[in-house]
Amino acid sequence: TLVEATTGKSRALPAANLPEDCNTIERCCMPRPYTGKPGIRSFEFPKDQPTRIRKPAQHLDKAYVKKLEKAYKILRELPDSDPRSLKNQMNLHCLYCDNGLYFPGHKYPLEVHNGWFFLPWHRMFIYWHERILAKILDDETFALPYWNWDNQSPEPPFGNTIPEIYANPKSPLYDVNRNNCSVPPFVVDMDTRTGCTNKTSDFLRVQNTRLTYSQIVLGGGTPSLFYGLPYRKGDFGGAGSGVFEDQPHGTIHAWVGSVDPLPGRRPGDDMGNFGRSAFDPVFYAHHTNTDRLWELWLTKIPGGQRTHPTDPDFLNSEFTFYDEDANLVKMKVSQVLDSRKLRYKYAEMPTPWITNGL
Ligand code: C2O
């Protein structure tokens, strides 16, 4: 059963009781028993943690890349009984969005996409992913890099291709299930549903800049346009995405996923399918940038500081994760709306799409 966090008429999502609440067909389920302590603790803000700086993936030094590679090598090698393994991180994402979790007494599975939980849930997911990597590396200052795909600069190193470090087939950051046309130097096509394109790089730079502007600056005029429509306990799927969940966030997923899958894989694997996307390490760099754009939207768009939805069902909803020690922890949406309290920030990169076009 789920831990009931809510009372009265509230339809805030209660924290799932992982790993038990996985559905009967064992879809995307987490290991049972898992390696951590029983019980779910409530998240509290870290007190003595250094602020971690998330940097653009095209500008990392060699020593950092080595560490990142080491962390993913270890993540890949962790046993299936460990919820921190890359496979289980994939399953955890799958669980929250691919018909994995059912609330007792409710007909429909939990869905964190296509609605107002998209941004906060993924912030939580990469927060814990980052804590796990930091623990593996025994480095409190370690932060995820971001894939700077909103940067259409024509000068290398490029932000708008898959970062080189994720494209080396010998690296643990590589994933075999990708589209051939998503390999650098191909520029990301934010306006595609699948794979290859015959648009030129120059065309794509202009198109991508316009799209980023139209979605994030023009399209995100109110919290509800930006975050997406309400999703409450018992709802059937998300009712409507915020303005950049589908495009460019979703189109970039689709662009990376394979068109001709390897045997045993489906078209779109890995990045293009909910159930498998978090198996590709570039997923985390993609979501770090998605999170960064949320941050930019809040603070940098002309017109001043923007705000969050204030509906209590949004603020009080809770989600369960595995922390760096594989212990269960639940987090409220209201706890992740200010990234400073989570002790990370983003190294700045130019954002000409906000005001000056190219
Ligand atoms: Cu849960 Cu980028 O998707």
UniProtKB/TrEMBL annotation:
UniProt GO MF annotations: catechol oxidase activity; metal ion binding
Occurrences of domain Tyrosinase copper-binding (ranges): 280-291
The entry's keywords: Copper, Disulfide bond, Metal-binding, Oxidoreductase, Signal, Thioether bond
Required co-factors: Cu(2+)
Lineage: superkingdom: Eukaryota
Family note: Belongs to the tyrosinase family.
Protein name per its UniProtKB record: Tyrosinase copper-binding domain-containing protein
Gene: LOC112286873
